[in-house]
What we know:
single chain, alpha+beta, 9-stranded mixed β-sheet, 22 helices, 18 strands
Amino acid sequence: MNTFVLGMRLLWGSGRRGRVRFLLMAMGSALGVACLAAVLTIPSILTAHDARTAAREPRPGASNVLYQEFRDPYGSQPLHRVFVARTRPGPTPVPPGLDRLPAAGEAIVSPKLGKILAANPRTAGLVPGRVTGTIAPDGLGDSEDLYAYVGTTPAKLTAPEELGSFGASRTWRQIVEPSTLDILRFTLGCIVLLPLVIFLSVCARLSGESRARRLAALRLVGLSMKDTLRVNAGESVAAALVGAVVGLVGYLGVNEVMARVGLPGLHWYPADGRPSWSTVAVCLLGCPTLAWGVGQFSARQAALAPISVRRTGERRPPKKFGMLLLVPGLGIIGGYCALSIAGKDPSGGSASSLLVPGAVLLTGAGLTFGLAPITAGLARRLAGTTSLPVALAMRRTEVEPGASLRVATGLVLLVFGASLTQGVLVELDQVSRATNPVQEYSLPFAQLSSHQQAQAIRTVGVQTSAMTSTSWFTTSGSRAPRTSAVVATCQQLAVFVERTKGCVEGTVLRIRDENFAGDDDAVPGMSFPFLLSNGRKLGVSVPQKSVTVRAYQPSKFAGPSLLIPPSSLPRGVVLSQGDLVLLSDSDPATIRAVLDGVGAVAPTSAVEPVGIVIDSLAQLTVIRSLLVVGMVLGLVIGVAAFVVSVADRAMERRGQVTALALLGARAGTLRVVQVLQVLLPLGVGLGAAIVAGWLAESSYLITGGGAVHWDWEGLPLLFVCALGVLLAAAVASVPMVRRHIDPEHIRRD
Length: 749
């Protein structure tokens, strides 16, 4: 305790510089702890969401209530409705968030759905009945959940089941699937937690050279080696502990705001985002423990050899063992890439699920610890140049290569993690949607007015439209021959299918699909009636002429036997028993925009995104949001580590800059020296991160078994980001060298 008090007295007695250093260490730790709390709380938010959705799951059993569930897309969001009907009087099961089940003609809805119903009267058909209440938060997944309990009569339920109770051990509709959640955790760990450790280490070693000289002085005046280490560790731990408390408080405030704003696809209640006691313990104990370990390591040289520290003796070159970590990491990653180039498929099996993450971690550690010896060796080679600024910068980098760890590692790991993030997004994009280049949306004409049809066709993102329908028949059990037809021009048909041949405009044609056998009922000369929206019937005879197509799978155009030109229908008339089929690009952003647009135009119409499960689209949105949050946190950490390191180095080197200025070095020369000292380790690290990250991304895609193995589209983005980081670093380094240098720094030293 006495040693700790001594350290704090020396800190506050060292003047404004010491107090500013303590404040910077505390604020840096606060930022790091806030980011750590955010990452550790993300799984808790997802778990709380899934727990509430599991608690409301209806379970079959014997009771006096029948139920039937409907899950439909409302725009790009899932809309969940549970219709309940009493069969006899008596007590009934009650789900979470409700006091009672709604009676026939009543509805209890979520707050978000209630706002939609109030703002848009056309959506009343989605929830028939009078809204009599609102579902409480414990009965909803999140604040944006679209959920409704609708009371009805048993006769109106088409496929009823007896309701036994509510609640299941686990929900069948998790917001993120468990396998995907594991990948998400690993990715967030790489892009946030690894740079966070570096950042906290940087904060714990602020003014490292000055502190080492001060500790060496204490050692020389008689303080024991253990007490010297305790003095340094006490200062670091105190700053880290203060910063941890401030960081947790700051995170709590941010959580209260973000819970009300939300992220695309992900919303939560403030209580979900509050850190658990285990998270609080990790933040309050982990950060000071890391600061203590870094303090012990950084002060050991001053405690063991105080004279060499005070006299700035010759520094030992950095150890090269860190570079050895790159050998197994890049070896495994490169091996998978080589197998893909050789035409072999190494996907599947449990070995790759362990080898690839392990190789990624080894490569990231190798980039961190191998940067110092690589930078020192390169600086030694460049130091012999005839340019004075380059020679000065390289000599300083050669004798102090450890500074490159503090300056560049955070941003290097950020770029490395960005490559992994791109790989995860590419893989999820392949899994979550069809591989077709186009996406179809089917809407029944029976649920659309003529005005809604016109507005749906003009929705942003929709490229073209067509009609599909089966031929008219009297009853569902009729055995009369039936066929299906497409109403489209040859130009529209060419957009909807992969390829077409032999299409003649303005003529009824028989469709021959390369992937399907011919329709036995669609025999040339046979006539089929199609019911029109004006009440009449359109008779269509199967012709001899045909058009050959290759339809996408799945598609509404895979299977129809007839192509009817739009000119065969009266103006403004559609096939009343058919569907309006819209088409757009298949990228997720366009799909969500079209679904939202169609949902706004026809809120009560059942929109079928062909080949897409709306839950998968919602899950992809959540994952994208979380990865973006991770990248933002990683960027904040990397930039903060860079700014703190560069500013700290500038403060530490004031004596050296003063000496060079007194020897006649110009201000421009000193600024060039400062910029080169920053750009060399940063440029080397970013280049290695791009190569290693792209190989790691490729190995992940290769072992994932998807169609895409090489993300060539993402590579230019990484280069642009790296160049932007280098440019920003160069500009930010210029003001770190002051024009007016105080010779007092030399006298004091």
